């Protein structure tokens, strides 16, 4: 069997929907379960037999290489290619093709840098090889496919169409969506136009289909989550800690909580629901934190209650403050006795005085 020894990882996006998390940090480098999210993807690719990975970078490209270096600490050979102008998903793939050493018919794994998945990568490669496809796509099923690209297939799994973000009931002909991981026959990558923006979803795949190429879909309904929003990112981090989303890179045993070694947690603080406490963070007496991520150097003072929230690096949450579904940017200061709920975002470095925002209990 031909294994996919090489992979391209698309990590150039700006992560606009994740702000303020991505003001100083590219989306794939935001910590999930104690390490940059990208670490989980790299580790899972390595576990599936991938040896060489090219990172297609753009936004804040300079932060990747100092962290991962040549990849040897993960058992990988990592190279970096930076887009000078955004090229889209297809353009990014074409832009890094020169770094690949695979033969024309060998499989190359390509995946998006913002998807947390339990995909069986080896099974996708096997499906690709067995079907003789030019491109194979990981498909997953979702209840409401309107926000995604639909990918109907025939009885043999062969792709029959690509339908971008359908809106009317008549357009929703399947619940199968493009899940953001692909196997390309190496020679197919060279057919993507060079030096201009190309969307693999809107241009490359429909064009290949129209030209008679064989595109194969493999439905894999294991864990799958698009980490495009802060709420999804927090959920994904918690699911990694809980073991619901598999990753060999979680720095500790899976369970209700993950506390990095240099963090300080008061004896009576309660951490539940896959909460992660980052390096050098401090959790005060009686604090209750559920399903949340507290990044490096952040402080949660005594009696604070934090649920389904993300607290950025170096931020401080005052005593008795309640956060629910909130995102606190790096270095922000939220004073005591505040109550922030339902998607509230506090920008990096912002300062909120004591008792500035409260929700009335009789609302």
TrEMBL record:
One Pfam family from the record: GMPPB_C
Nucleotidyl transferase domain span: 7-239
Domain Mannose-1-phosphate guanyltransferase C-terminal, first and last residues per copy: 255-357
SUPFAM superfamilies: Nucleotide-diphospho-sugar transferases, Trimeric LpxA-like enzymes
Family to which this protein belongs: Belongs to the transferase hexapeptide repeat family.
Protein name: NDP-sugar synthase
